[in-house]
Design goal:
By secondary structure, the chain is α/β, with parallel strands linked by helices. It contains 9 helices and 7 strands. The protein has helices at residues 12-25, 28-43, 51-57, 67-79, 94-105, 118-130, 144-147, 167-174, 193-204; strands at 84-88, 110-115, 137-141, 155-160, 178-187, 210-215, 221-226. Helix 6 links the parallel strand 2 (110-115) and strand 3 (137-141). Helix 4 (67-79) packs parallel to helix 5. It is globular. The relative contact order is 0.13. The model has no long low-confidence stretch (mean pLDDT 93). The structure holds S-adenosylmethionine (SAM). S-adenosylmethionine is lined by residues 51, 55, 63-65, 89-92, 94-95, 114-117, 120, 143-144, 161-163, 166.
């Protein structure tokens, strides 16, 4: 009898999809350079633009988690037996592929994703189908503050990776659904230090139901555990 594959990340459909998408994301710098005059002031909060417009302008840019972050997401989800994971900011679905692999390997469940830009949402669904992980995902089109409001409890794990001003509002929407010891990860803490200060202060204060630390991984990965 063939032993079961230890990790869905090794399945050809997943590995090939991830390889292709990570390779494409390597040309992000070029694509960001093309839209830089339009997006840089908005991206860094120097000028306030509507999130939908910013997402539209960034519609060809992947800005995904790195491979190491993805592996870490997979391993954390496996270690806490995550069955319901919520993701703020799906983009083309790279992080979703790591999370959905873990949910599948845990025995089943769902990754509830969210994406504001319709063309990226459609592509993410296509990539999840190609990787044969679509049965473990529910990626919702629209503003996460609305689309994630009716996520069922208990939520085992959260990834925050959308536009930065919205991390804290999204966390507050999800907090009542978190199960004790749920894990919340938030990306780009160093790059968006100023915009994410309220978020980091909230999770690190020790008075809001979290223990938390910024990990020096990629450009800063905040790892928080919900203590209830
Ligand atoms: C950094 S990218 C996400 C990358 C993705 N997590 C990955 O690793 O492949 C951020 C995404 O969040 C989306 N986004 C930003 N604000 C949003 C909102 N309020 N609701 C839903 N999606 C949002 C953007 O359109 C963009 O595609």
């Amino acid at each position: 009898m063939t032993p079961p594959t230890a990790s869905s990340l090794l399945a050809p459909s997943v590995a090939q999809t991830l390889d292709r998408l990570h390779r494409r994301a390597r040309t992000d710098l070029f694509r960001i350079a093309l839209v830089a005059p339009l997006v840089v002031p908005d991206f860094f909060g120097l000028r306030k633009v509507d999130d939908t417009r910013l997402s539209h302008r960034m519609r060809s840019v992947y800005v995904p988690v790195s491979r190491s972050q993805g592996q870490m997401l997979y391993l954390i989800a496996r270690s806490i037996d995550a069955r319901r994971i919520v993701e703020f900011g799906t983009s083309f679905g790279i992080s979703t592929l790591y999370l959905a692999s873990a949910v599948k390997d845990n025995g089943g469940g769902v990754v509830v994703g969210s994406e504001l830009e319709p063309s990226k949402h459609a592509k993410a669904l296509e990539h999840l189908r190609e990787a044969e992980l679509d049965a473990f995902t529910d990626v919702r089109l629209g503003d996460a503050l609305k689309t994630l409001a009716d996520v069922e409890a208990p939520v085992d794990m959260v990834l925050l990776d959308g536009w930065k001003d919205t991390y804290l509002p999204v966390l507050k929407v999800l907090q009542p659904k978190l199960r004790p010891r749920a894990v919340v990860l938030a990306d780009n803490i160093f790059t968006f230090k100023r915009a994410l200060r309220p978020y980091v202060n909230y999770v690190q204060s020790g008075t809001n139901g979290f223990v938390s630390s910024t990990l020096d991984i990629a450009d800063g990965f905040e790892l928080s555990v919900f203590t209830g």
